[in-house]
Amino acid sequence: MKIETAVVALAALAQETRLSIFRLLVQAGKEGVAAGGLGEELGIPPATLSFHLKALSHAGLVKSRTEGRFVIYSANYAEMDKLIAYLTEHCCAGDAGQCAPVRKC
Amino acid sequence: MKIETAVVALAALAQETRLSIFRLLVQAGKEGVAAGGLGEELGIPPATLSFHLKALSHAGLVKSRTEGRFVIYSANYAEMDKLIAYLTEHCCAGDAGQCAPVRKC
DNA sequence: TTAACATTTCTATAATATTGGAAATGTAGA
DNA sequence: TCTACATTTCCAATATTATAGAAATGTTAA
Questions:
Q1: Which of A12, A36, A46, B89 registers the highest number of CB atoms within 10 A of its CB?
Q2: Does residue B99 lie in a domain region?
Q3: Cβ contact (<8 Å) for A84 and B98?
Q4: Given B26, B91, B100, which is nearest A26 (Cβ)?
Q5: Would B37 be classed as within a structural domain?
Q6: Residue of B34, B67, B69, B68 lying closest to B53 (CA atoms)
Q7: Residue closest to sugar C1' of D9 by CA
Q8: CATH number at residue B89
Q9: pLDDT of A90
Q10: What pLDDT score does B98 carry?
């Protein structure tokens, strides 16, 4: 991942409304949630929601598919994986292991 | 970590100049680098550098100590660890394991 | 004390992001 | 086709962020 890509992804998540949307989508799993569902759940007006979904989408962090009148959004786990890998590799090295997430192996 | 804290940390890293500063500090290790050294390395004028260091500092991602006339900045690995843990926990769950950084255990 | 230097604060300007109402677009069912 | 509904685009107002010169602050060494 290039630094520009990382910056775009970080910027997409660096906003409370968008981070909330993304968290909700992560929780929802790969089934996803319709735009309207997100708006209702989080109390965001349609235009504002659409604006934020565009940012997340542009960053590649969410995918969308159309089902009839609904647009279903879902988290793109693969892209999030890449972002975390980037942060772990470039922003935690130097003193290796220091920032590795705790895992029971 | 609260969502507000995560947003502040993400916002601190969601800017190319600041992400570059942080990467450089991570590489530099716990010894750290003087503000002037960062400015010279990255070609950033003092006032601009100071502005960005303040943002990183406010997010808790960097620490600083004064040595004579120099202010030495260093990465706060612990805070970065917390951020990665937050992202892994809240933004990669739902379909557990999907986003876990690849590690050989 | 005085001069040199490192860094921050002050300040103004420019650029970018956020918000949400209203209108436009597209789809489904009557 | 006509109507209802979901979502997006358009637009304008507002807020926040980034940039960097100049001045201020603090520190060291002569």
A1: A12
A2: no
A3: no
A4: B91
A5: yes
A6: B34
A7: A47
A8: 1.10.10.10
A9: 85
A10: 61
Q: What are phi and psi of B34, to 5 degrees?
A: -70, 150
**Which residues of chain A are modeled with pLDDT < 70?**
93-105
Q: Which of residues 16-35 of A touch strand D (CB under 7 A)?
A: 34-35
Q: How confident is the model at residue B101 (pLDDT cuts 50, 70, 90)?
A: very low
Decide if A63 is inside a domain.
Answer: yes
Taking the stretch 41-100 of protein chain A, residues with Cβ within 7 Å of any atom in nucleic acid chain D are 46-47, 49-51, 53-54, 64, 69-72
Distance B46 CA to D23 C1' (A): 13
Q: What is the pLDDT of residue B91?
A: 82
Instruction: Quote the domain boundaries for residue B80.
Output: 3-94
Q: Which residue blocks in chain B are alpha helix, DSSP H?
A: 3-13, 16-28, 35-42, 46-58, 77-90
- B81–chain A Cβ distance below 8 A for any pair: yes
Would you say how long chain A is, in residues?
105
Is A91 part of the contact surface with chain B (CB cutoff 8 Å)?
Answer: yes
Is B69 a domain residue? yes
pLDDT at A95: 47
pLDDT tens column, B22-65: 999 999 999 999 999 999 999 999 999 999 999 999 999 999 99
CA B98 from chain center: how many Å?
A: 25
> What type of residue is A100?
A
pLDDT of B86 over the 70 cut: yes
Domain tally, chain A: 1
DSSP A78: H
